[in-house]
Amino acid sequence: MTERPVLAVVGAGPAGLAATLAAAARGVRVVLIDSAAEPGGQFYRQPARGLGARRPEALHHQWRTWQRLSGGLGAHLAAERVTHLSDHHVWCVERESAGFTVHALLGPGQEESVAVRADGVLLATGAYEKVLPFPGWTLPGVVTAGGAQAMLKGGLVLPGRTAVVAGTGPLLLPVATGLAAAGARVAALVESAGPRRVAARSAEPGGLGRHRVHPRGLLRRIRALTAQPAKLAEAAGYAAALLAGGTRVMARHAVVEAHGRDRLESVTVAALDAEGGAVPGSERRLACDALAVGHGLLPHTDLAAGLGCRLDGSTVRVDDEQRTDVPGVWAAGEATGVGGAGLSLAEGHIAGRSAAARLHGSAPDPREWAAAARSRTRLRAFFAELDGAYAAPVRWAERVTDATVVCRCEEVTAGAVREAVGTLGAADLRTVKLLTRAGMGWCQGRMCEPGVAGVAGCDPSPARRLLARPVPLGVLATPPDPL
């Protein structure tokens, strides 16, 4: 009997789960590796079992889809077609002559590492939040929008009793609605994008150029957006719920400063002009003890870059089968472009089917995933236009004072970054890092890179990192335990 090929799937969010189910159903042994204790990713994040949540479905959208994915995974686990490794934090994937070795740190301590051998690798590593700095953003009580959502879904806790949700992007609506439904008073949803201006993002490095509105581009965007009426209806439902609950929805506004002594007490909000600058005299102060702020998502590409996969800007390049240009490596979901759970499910399904066929030594038939491919095409077009509509304000960096910390790990201020550029002649992020230590801390620039780049006026393209997460020296010096 021929031994089944092994596919390592990194990430148990929508894309990873869809890929796991598709591949396991077609004779591939799947090792599903994920850093969380439970599958689901951020979108389907489940409350900790010890909390005894009685109605977890109340925290989620598309609950039936989650039940289908969870039930399918359970069936494959019972049949031993899938091995689920939870609390495994992948820090490197090695390409070898006979396949791949996936290295992962174990558990909360992350002081021991194991190695998983596989014939192929499917990267469903998701995305992380983009947060742009502003005065007061390091105060306790200020969290990311996704962080607030994770606290609610995973811990059944609120970041505060009175919240402001701010930034830009479609994530803000469900976060604000979820907080309100859980009992928080959402004082305001502060969205820097405006409903009437769908602006083209300036190509100037650092994002300090001007908005340019093109009538033909606007018409194209309207067509792409209206091609997904269910998405628009979903957004309208969120907005209606917020307005009915008394939440003030402030379009073309931004939080310009957070205030507080020991923790957050209030924020200052200002209207934005056509170029993204704060309108003088429009400032108003809102009392709150929680601020959930985010400016979109960035694809998590460290593992792909470490394998030598080609990137298109900040995303992993894939073909119609979701294959990267590295043989034996597939990618699906937010790593190939941020587009929500529906797009991740479609890409994961295609990638899983393709991997199963290729690992069995045959060419797949694209007709078998035609429906998923059509969904992928429509959703990619929709989110490409949505991304343009939710571009961050181009002049946001002008509101960052010199005293504002922009790299939290190393406590580097905006003034130090500006001195490195203006006085010491730094012309790129690497030089700024060497001169200021910005990006040398625990996150290795993953969180602060967009903010430092904006303040410095440098190209914000992601840096290639050898390791996808911090690793103890003892792990690097010790041969890993094979699984």
Question: Can you describe what's shown?
Answer:
The structure is a single chain. With 483 residues, the chain is α/β, with parallel strands linked by helices. It contains 13 helices and 23 strands. The protein has helices spanning 14-24, 63-78, 145-155, 172-181, 215-226, 229-244, 302-307, 340-359, 370-389, 414-422, 429-436, 449-456, 473-477, and strands at residues 6-10, 29-33, 82-85, 88-96, 99-106, 113-118, 120-123, 127-129, 142-144, 162-167, 185-191, 248-251, 253-259, 266-271, 284-287, 290-294, 297-299, 311-312, 315-316, 329-331, 405-407, 412-413, 481-482. The strands form seven sheets. A five-stranded parallel β-sheet has the order 3-2-1-7-20. Strand 10 (162-167), helix 4 and strand 11 form a beta-alpha-beta unit. Helix 3 (145-155) packs across helix 4 (172-181), helix 5 (215-226) packs across helix 9 (370-389) and helix 8 (340-359) packs across helix 9 (370-389). The longest helix has 20 residues, at 340-359. The radius of gyration is 22 Å and the shape is globular. Residues 196-219 have low confidence and may be disordered.
